[in-house]
Amino acid sequence: MERNRPTPIIDLDQARATGTVLTTPKAFNRRDFLTRTAAATVAIAASPLAIAGTDKFGRDRDWTGNDPITYPEPAFEVKDKRFSGRQGNATLQRIWHGMGNDASLWNEGPVWMGDWGCLLWSDIPNHRVLRWNEDDGHVSVFQTESGYSNGHSRDNQGRLIAMEHDTRRVRRREYDGTWTILADSFEGKKLNAPNDAATHADGSVWFTDPGYGILGPYEGHKAEFELPTRVYRIDGKTGKLSVISEGKIRRPNGLCFSPDFKKLYVVDTGATDGPYPADITVFDVNSSGTGVSNPKQFADFAPGFTDGIRCDTDGNVWCGWGWGGMDTNGVRVHAPDGTLLAFLHTPEVVANLCFGGTKRNRLFMTGSTSVYAIYVNAVGAALS
Ligand code: MG
Fold first, then answer.
1. Ligand 1 centroid to 26 CA: how many Å?
2. Could you tell me the residue ranges of all domains in the chain?
3. Could you tell me which CATH class the domain 76-375 is placed in?
4. What are the pLDDT digits (tens) for 49-65?
């Protein structure tokens, strides 16, 4: 599939199919041109393909938004009739794709900052965090020297939490703009490279430490692992770090809680290392909120794998997806029992996602070099 192919004014395939024979404009006199263009316009009006391109999921549409898409949004592929997350009169938008010196290389870690009226996300290899303003769609650099941050989250006071690859730590941005280090080591050994975080109702911040940031210079720097790959919990009152999971998951990556905080979902991106799991494990969170038990496979994402995940208020799990070929690019939605409900197809790999907007019913997706958004008939469970 050609990406970003400009939608032709006259669709040649449709013109041929309807018997309208076109030659190059140079061969037309004015009367011919007007007559033939009018005939082609009739042919185009009879088929949505002339607008959306040739891909059934509309991935080859004109992403500038100049050409309309006929509702319902073709990017949704509903797999189970229980799925109610598609907003019938909303369409998938690419809200940002930087060009030239503004281009991003690899986007992750979106976080909705409703009180700031913006979305933040990481452009990891460019060592910066970008900001999309809700009011006018303007994109600017929020932060340079970001420590090659990856995932972002917010605590229960709304403060920004950043997971830094290069500096190998978890930081919190205070209301005055200063930063506080929440965790950078455990029992005297440096963390690997924290990746993603979620905040529990009790104020504790749970995060994953798969170590991608110390595998090479592109997203951090190469360094030896001093600790196993793990899921950690930072106590909200004492700041004490404790181990939640070790060994069960090869590369713990995205994570989120169920809306009632009784379950913890953790992604395994072990498939980046070879024939290892590409799934989500669901744990029961104990009643004190300090540990987990009873791990079970929630969903398998091979081919490809998921990375960032978020729950909606009905407990459905929305998962970025990709790396298994074009038809795995996008988002998968799973019911609380693990059943696959729907795909949302995008032209690029979606690593991470979050819900945003004042009603948290707009899904924002960091799609490789772009940011996509769509209003959905679902509401994000977490603050961001
Ligand atoms: Mg991640």
1. 53
2. 1-60, 76-375
3. mainly beta
4. 444 579 999 999 999 98
